[in-house]
Amino acid sequence: MKFKHLVVALALVAAIASPAFAQETRSFTAANGTFDIPVAPQRIVALNDQIVALPLYELGAPVVGSAGRIDADGNFFMRGGMDTLGIDYANTDIEYVGGFNELDVEAIAALQPDLIIGGTYTDAAVIEQLQTIAPTLVIDNGALGLIETLKALADVSGKTGDFETRYARYLDNVARTKAYIGDTSAISATMTFMFPAGEELWVYRTGLGAISQLLSDLGFAQPAAVAALSENQASWSAELIQDLDADFIFGFYRQQPDATPEAVFAAYETFAPGWCQALTACQNGQVVLLPGPTFGSTMTGLELALDLVETHVAGRSFTPFAE
Amino acid sequence: MSANGVPRQVVLRSPRERIALRLPVRGIVVALSLLVGPIAVSCVSLSTGSYGVALDEIWQTLRGVTISQAIDNVVWEFRFPRTICAALVGAMMALSGGVLQNATRNSLADPSLVGISQGAALAVVTLTVLFPELNSGLRPWIAFVGSILVAIAIRALSYTRQGGSTIRFILMGIGLSAFISSLTSILLTYGEIDRAMAALAWLAGSVNAASWGDVWTLGSWSAVLFASLMLLSRAMSAMRFGEAAATGLGAPVALVRNLQLAIAVGFAAIATSVVGPLGFVGLIAPHAAKRLAPAGMGLHLVLTALLGALLVGLADLVGRAAFAPIQIPAGILTSLIGVPVFVLLLVRSRATGSH
Questions:
Q1: Is the complex ipTM higher than 0.85?
Q2: Residue in A with minimal Cα distance to B189
């Protein structure tokens, strides 16, 4: 009898020690090919914090390692982690495995992952190396868009049910907000991204994470010059700033530690002196700076963006833009 | 030094004394000492990393004993090829600089200063950003083409009726290098952001994704180019005295110079294609080799290669292990060391009136 117990115990230990061998697998086609991946992965390493680790963690997937960033004091952090989900390396079991473009492959191997997930930003040669550790999937978030990327991450981590529940709630909330606003297609919005130094103004037609997904879901219009962009985003000329005028112009603060609301507004002035006089949105107080997490690629980011846009558009009066 | 002021030398002769090789004793001692450097760095590299593997486990793994698949991967697939690649890339970049300096008779010549590395970089960034669907295995060939095109352009632009001017070669190289870097920046700024991110990692000059395929590429090209260089070394020695003297000594000056440029470009292009641009190795190593031991051209090249291997091997080891899991690309560390050396050389060349 004792021997039987010993055998069972050893089998259990072996199963825990080598989850990859004990797991049921299935086929999954990612951007870099088709792989056999665990049906319910137990140890996932994310090769990007904001785009991969946060949405996985939010879904309850077992993330054991993630690429991240280093702050001015030399501390590791996950971009948007504390803002969006209240998580970081210090208060979770997630290990730092290098910068997203300078990964420590040995640190990843030491975590014994059964699934590794990166994107097209990861060096193809590193992806090949990582295949020797565990199936390494490239999820092309640029091509998929935010929602399809979240769906793909939910799918590979075996959390599709959790995602669908939360996504359905989000869509219900979007419908509620649209009901408050009325004809959303009659309202135009421009999405901008300005760094505190004011060197360049980036304008987004699409692809700016949660906020651009939300504005699209709400059915907002865009200024003709922005809608006509062939790429997702463009670096804008200061001389053409009036082409961005709309009912609302959105920008961000807190995307870096020095990006305070004042610093970002000052940066617009540095970039295009007298910009506020050129834009009726600014004259009417309808240039809205949102906190950085609203462009993060998570369901939490989408919900936050929805609350903020609802507050600014449906929750108060505004002066419509007239050409 | 012997009593009459000539460095002590040993002469190696072939059995029938048809070939004799005269080598300075100090040069041989330095070369043997330097050989220990890359070997020692390789040993430390093999036993250091974020994945904890005991020394005896590494030894057993190297002997072919599989302790675990993970340790096999770490030692055989990550550390070993990375260590060899770092040494080979260092030797190749150093030799490229050494040969360029000889061909142009300018002690500041370096593949990263005269645009050859930038040509490779622009070609690879173009591939990564504009044609992401193309196989990344094409990278070495594309980089090679980029470097060759830049070298041909510099050569053509610096050519005068009096023939190729070395100072024009350097100045054209620096100008073209700035122009090419601007094109690369445009691609990185306006290209799809994810592609630009992937290219940026490579541009920092890192050995972190080295594979056995890269070892094979670097090793085979190194062997061919180094053998060609050795065959050329006698004529290169004559070129040290200037073109007129070399012509007088019977060296086919134009041919030798063109061959040297082709070999220098080859070394830099292949090395850059695998790990990205590594600045200043080609500048530092030949100078350091000269100061360590006065030697003939052949031995000087050997010393240069060994110093390059040591420099990049150390840069990679420090970059990946000193602050792990933070990874500092080797290219950043070589530039950190290289810039002050470059300034020092500039100051010295101004003081002595040489260039």
A1: no
A2: A235
